[in-house]
Amino acid sequence: MAAADDLSFDPWDPAFVADPYPAYAELRERGRVIYYEPTGQWLVPGHADVTALLRERRLGRTYQHRFTHEEFGRTAPPAEQEPFHTLNDHGMLDLEPPDHTRIRRLVSKAFTPRTVERLKPYVHRLAGELVDGLVRAGGGDLLSDVAEPLPVAVIAEMLGIPEADRGPLRPWSADICGMYELNPSQETAARAVRASVEFTAYLRELIAERRKEPGDDLISGLIAAHDEGDRLTEQEMISTAVLLLNAGHEATVNATVNGWWALFRNPEQLAALRADHSLVPSAVEELMRYDTPLQLFERWVLDDIEIAGVTVPRGAEIAMLFGSANHDPAVFAEPERLDLTRVDNPHISFSAGIHYCIGAPLARIELAASMTALLERAPTLAPAAEPRRKPNFVIRGLEGLPVTL
How high is the pLDDT of residue 227? Predict the structure, then answer.
């Protein structure tokens, strides 16, 4: 069994957070599964293993459909964190079959390809307006001026959240997502609980309004969705709305700023993109691979599993390193090179298996729309200063990205 004690993998080290990819290369050289004492997790860095484990039914996002905390050798979360866990544990991302199957099937009835396609003109119009504002100002912060408002407005529009109510959405999302980092602090947990209480209360009121007066929005669709007598409970609707909002914000915001910062650091690739806007779809995929917004995804071991001759026991936690898998030279030629024309690009930034991101089509539309608007309306966009990276490891992003024209 390989251990990570003497490696440069250290998710709390600012140097590692700034550039984790060399440490991932060390991990891949060290072995296919590595026990990491500080988090009590088994790290899996290779693309083939991560892809296989995402589809492995002996692993689960939860274990509570089969075991109590005690039976699984785990301690129940503190009672004061109950509002966060109630919200989190009823979302399909943290459920396993049969509950996951039922909820995803019902959500899919409301979150259809047609629903997403219908949003396309709105997404492109809004992206153009946001970029026009940046151009009029002669520059600004790409994160707060374009990357953040676009997905927030789009998912809020989709859910049917009135414009006047959208201010707290991003702060709520950020506070809840803090709990997905490794070993979150008590302060992080308290913020997540407060956001969970406030967000839940807001959505409960909105759902009550939509029950009385349904609209052409996702909340109304979730209320109406039924299949063979099955319906979503109110808590499942609330958790689904929060999941879609959080995932919609975090992935798209961070993919946008990570992507543009990568383009600024690879001027020949940016020049090629500016010369040929038809590269936008492959550029979106390559930038998602090159600097992955979600670096790590966790699974519980429900039954003993063997990886590369190592038995990982029931009750253990496996940390699949998406960022490492997306840089695996066994799958990607010259993985450390940004190549916007990369054709064979099986990145796993949207996960795989039953937990494949339901919002991936919408995220791709948003990323392509903002990139196209910036290329067309801000052709001389350039960094105004070195950005500061967020201290987070799991959800990888920047504090801001100052730009000039």
Answer: 61
